[in-house]
């Protein structure tokens, strides 16, 4: 069973890896945005050093981490949910439901494969360019990297769980595009992509940091920047894993309802 | 008076194709999609332009419509050089791409026609007359107010053909006009094209894989393969050259030994189902009657030979 | 009806007319899904609103960014967003060109008696993109109401001119990007770096960026003429790269030159497509 899902994930990786020109074009665009936002943050942090607990180089690092994880965590959409919505709309989903594999795990495996490709293909180069052009606050000890990677994986799972729920709404709504757009908007804002969540003032900041989307960028970035170590690191993982369990569970409930619906309608 | 409305003279089209060779390396090589094709079509002719996939059919049609510029040679359609005066030519030709719709998915069929009326600046009276005729002959009246997405494939194809004719084109190009249609829709489309040609003298060039299209419509076929014209003449000649066969697929009540009938070749047996090949020129009716008399027949269907098979056989016959 | 050879001016008029006709069809198509239209229109407005909220959050911590006050930054934001929104509304769809080349539907447009650019620009015209224009105008309105400027007739006239010329500049970038897709069909994202990226860049004051970057968007991809350069005049500020004051008069000329260059690029791209078919 594990081997099956590993194969599905590898398939997801390969499928996205075929678009080489598109990948190069995306890397270029990510890098351009990295530069623009880096300068904006520099202007902000030069006036308010230690804003949100970050120093200047941490803030700039946060920008480049955002560009690194933008595609991997599908912060602006572009994950497997587009295809899932399309399959639901066309009715091909019935085929998936009769496969001897779990629907949610199948698509999760796909999405993890995709995320792995996007992290390497789309994320690595902008981070390297950022490190060359700016003074980044990269970890001093090697083990921070695997700790960061684990947090990214958990972030991808949380992100997938949300996007899976959104995609399943297409069973009931004629056109899932509107909901999907709303969802990635929320993700964009509450992940910290537009501004780190620790800079959000007061209650807005507290709410934003408690929402699942903070798992996608803010938490992994804090892990890499060394803001979360020891018990706090364990707390960060628990936060992400907690949301993953809750949202995946909700996904299963909705999936069961959707399956009944398909069976009743006869596909 | 009949004039040459399509002139194709020693036309070539060469593409540079890049292929992946290994992980990162790419190889360039040249492909001659069309390699010295010449033919002329006189006004009022209906010509089938046929050949296997990748033979250069659609590349030729793209040069005739001005989409592609030829690498060498001369093309004239209605006296116009398509690649130099593409938009001027567009008013005088109609094009139906079998797989690519020109109709508006979410809007009633009538709206698509209204757009063509205005885009092509068709005079009101001409447009009304043409639409009326198309609606009547293609039986579109009940479909005009229906959004295109709700039409069946056959209804949509009829809609597409009407759309290509509303501006009174002299030449009509049809790319696989009957692909995927049911028998009734196919017959209706063919009947309409025949009438159109007889009444209006519209010149028709069609590409197809369906031999029946050719049989019922085209007085002449041009066969292209590997970018060259390999046959240009009457359909009968093609049949002779290819000695084509039709296929009778019969389901018998249970398994039998291969059926023994004069002039019939058993190609395949699969349980109670048998595939019987017989010369295309021969009628299927007496054959079926004979079969029914001698065997417990459950079901049967006749499959027409496709172009590819005919052409393949044509080559085999020639080299033998 | 037959045998007319349209001259260039007639062709341009033909193109605009065809554009209008096709846009009308898309608007009616959209209205077939009213709820979805309402949601995506609102989504578009909200999407663009979020990045202004991010700027507001920045200003909750500082008085000025790169020496520019919030109303001044809002002025930059409002002008570029409105200009970009207009260009995106009118011909943002041209970035689908690569897809049309790949799936062969571009050929359908080539056999119609109207300019291809007009058809591609009108393709999938989306009224919901008005959301961005509306949001840009709201921010611009806020900026004009709060910014401290000695309003002269010249400065007042400069604001609408900025938006129009800025829209034309972004339009040129859209068309040039589409022309590039004739050669690299999968490279639609590169265009985003200049359109969406350019718009994001211009929302911030030029003083915060490296001078070479500012020179790049002034002399290479002349997006600085959307708002940075004319804002020098309207807000009475110095150029960080020492441009003389009269440069504020240039946007109409720069926009015209950019459009002409983009038009040439488009023609070259279309010619290449028709000789390679891919």
Short structural description:
The complex is a heterotrimer of chains A (267), B (320) and C (278). Chain B has ten helices and 13 strands.
What is the total tally of β strands of chain A? 0
Count of separate DSSP helical elements of chain B? 10
Biggest interface pair, counts: A-C, 37 and 38 residues
Instruction: Flag low-confidence runs of chain A.
Output: none
User: Oligomeric status of the shown chains?
Assistant: heterotrimer
User: Which class do the helix and strand fractions of chain A yield?
Assistant: mainly alpha
Overall, the morphology of chain A is globular
Main-sheet strand order of chain B equals 5-6-7-3-8-9
The average pLDDT score of chain A comes to: 91
Biggest β-sheet strands, sense, barrel of chain A: none
By DSSP (H or I, 4+ residues per run), the number of helices of chain A equals 11
Q: Mean pLDDT of chain B, rounded to whole units? A: 86
Q: Helicity range of the residues of chain A? A: over 70%
Number of domains of chain A: 1
Helix content of chain B: 25-40%
């Amino acid at each position: 069973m594990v081997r099956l899902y590993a194969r599905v994930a590898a398939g997801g990786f390969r499928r996205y890896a075929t678009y080489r020109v598109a990948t190069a074009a995306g890397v270029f665009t990510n890098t351009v945005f990295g530069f623009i936002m880096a300068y904006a943050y520099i202007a902000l942090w030069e006036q308010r050093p230690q804003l949100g607990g970050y120093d200047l180089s941490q803030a700039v690092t946060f920008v480049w981490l955002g560009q690194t994880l933008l595609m991997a965590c599908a912060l602006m959409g572009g994950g497997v949910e587009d295809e899932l919505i399309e399959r639901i709309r066309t009715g091909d989903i019935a085929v998936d439901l009769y496969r001897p594999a779990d629907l949610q795990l199948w698509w999760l495996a796909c999405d993890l494969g995709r995320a792995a490709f996007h992290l390497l293909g789309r994320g690595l180069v902008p981070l390297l360019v950022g490190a060359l052009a700016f003074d980044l606050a990269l970890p001093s000890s090697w083990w921070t990297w695997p700790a960061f990677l684990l947090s990214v994986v958990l972030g991808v799972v949380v992100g997938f769980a949300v996007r899976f729920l959104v995609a399943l709404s297409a069973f009931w709504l004629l056109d899932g595009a509107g909901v999907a757009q709303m969802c990635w908007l929320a993700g964009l804002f509450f992940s910290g992509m537009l501004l780190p969540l620790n800079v959000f003032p007061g209650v807005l900041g507290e709410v934003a940091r408690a929402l699942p989307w903070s798992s996608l960028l803010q938490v992994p970035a804090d892990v890499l920047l060394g803001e979360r170590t020891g018990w706090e690191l364990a707390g960060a993982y628990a936060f992400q894993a907690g949301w993953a369990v809750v949202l995946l569970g909700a996904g299963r409930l909705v999936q069961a309802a959707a399956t009944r619906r398909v069976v009743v309608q006869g596909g | 008076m009949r004039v040459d409305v399509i002139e194709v003279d020693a036309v070539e089209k060469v593409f540079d194709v890049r292929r992946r060779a290994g992980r990162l390396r790419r190889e360039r090589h040249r492909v001659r999609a069309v390699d010295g094709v010449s033919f002329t079509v006189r006004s009022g002719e209906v010509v089938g332009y046929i050949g296997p996939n990748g033979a250069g059919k659609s590349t030729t049609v793209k040069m005739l419509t001005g989409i592609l510029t030829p690498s060498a040679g001369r093309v004239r359609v209605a006296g116009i050089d398509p690649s130099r005066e593409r938009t001027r030519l567009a008013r005088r030709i109609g094009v139906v791409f079998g797989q690519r719709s020109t109709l508006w998915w979410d809007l009633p069929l009538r709206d698509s026609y209204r757009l063509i009326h205005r885009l092509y600046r068709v005079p009101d009276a001409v447009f009304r007359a043409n639409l009326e005729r198309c609606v009547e002959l293609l039986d579109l009246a009940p479909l005009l107010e229906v959004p295109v997405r709700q039409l069946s494939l056959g209804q949509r194809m009829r809609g597409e053909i009407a759309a290509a004719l509303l501006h009174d084109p002299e030449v009509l190009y049809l790319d696989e006009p009957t692909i995927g249609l049911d028998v009734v829709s196919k017959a209706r489309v063919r009947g309409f094209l025949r009438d159109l040609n007889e009444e209006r003298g519209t010149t028709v060039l069609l590409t197809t894989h369906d031999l029946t299209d050719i049989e019922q419509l085209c007085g002449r076929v041009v066969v292209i393969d590997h970018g060259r014209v390999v046959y240009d003449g009457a359909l009968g000649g093609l049949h002779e050259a290819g000695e084509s066969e039709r296929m009778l697929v019969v389901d018998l009540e249970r398994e039998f030994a291969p059926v023994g009938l004069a002039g019939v070749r058993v190609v395949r047996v699969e349980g109670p189902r048998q595939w019987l090949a017989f010369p295309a020129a021969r009628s299927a009716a007496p054959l079926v009657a004979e079969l029914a008399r001698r065997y417990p027949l459950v079901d049967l269907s006749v499959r027409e030979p496709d172009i590819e098979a005919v052409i393949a056989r044509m080559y085999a016959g020639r080299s033998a | 009806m037959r045998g007319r050879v349209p001259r260039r001016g007639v062709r341009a008029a033909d193109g605009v007319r065809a554009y209008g006709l096709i846009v009308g069809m898309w608007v009616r198509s959209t209205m077939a899904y009213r709820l979805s239209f309402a949601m995506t229109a609102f989504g578009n407005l909200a999407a663009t609103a979020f990045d202004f909220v991010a700027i507001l959050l920045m200003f909750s911590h500082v008085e000025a960014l790169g020496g520019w006050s919030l109303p001044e930054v809002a002025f930059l934001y409002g002008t570029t967003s409105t200009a970009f929104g207009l260009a995106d509304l009118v011909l943002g769809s041209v970035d689908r060109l690569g897809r049309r080349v790949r799936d062969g539907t571009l050929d359908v447009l080539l056999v119609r008696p109207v300019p291809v650019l007009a058809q591609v620009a009108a393709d999938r015209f989306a009224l919901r993109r008005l959301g961005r224009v509306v949001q840009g105008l709201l921010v611009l309105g806020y900026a004009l109401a709060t910014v401290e400027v000695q309003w002269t007739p010249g400065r007042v006239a400069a604001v609408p001119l900025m938006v129009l010329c800025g829209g034309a500049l972004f339009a040129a970038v859209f068309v040039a990007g589409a022309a590039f897709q004739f050669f690299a069909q999968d490279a639609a994202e590169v265009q985003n770096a200049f359109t969406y990226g350019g718009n994001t860049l211009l929302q911030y004051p030029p003083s915060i960026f490296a001078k070479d970057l500012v020179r790049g968007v002034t002399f290479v991809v002349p997006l600085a003429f959307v708002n940075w350069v004319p804002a020098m005049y309207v807000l009475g500020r110095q150029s960080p790269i020492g441009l003389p004051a009269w440069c504020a008069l240039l946007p109409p000329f720069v926009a015209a030159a950019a459009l002409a260059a983009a038009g040439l690029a488009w023609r070259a791209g279309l010619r290449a497509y028709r000789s390679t078919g891919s």
